[in-house]
Amino acid sequence: MVYYPVAADTKQQFANGTVEEIVYRLLQEKQNLAQNVMVPSDKLNIEQELYEQIYNE
């Protein structure tokens, strides 16, 4: 994860906020999309993950 300062438009002088606020919203939307992607189960290799969890490998 990357942390960076965000200049906030507390006086609401800009309709969509500062550049940093806009970029932050876009990154949040992209992250949410990436977390909600459906992947076919045959691509997940569940058996290998289960084996590694059981035998701590």
TrEMBL record:
Name recorded for this polypeptide: Uncharacterized protein
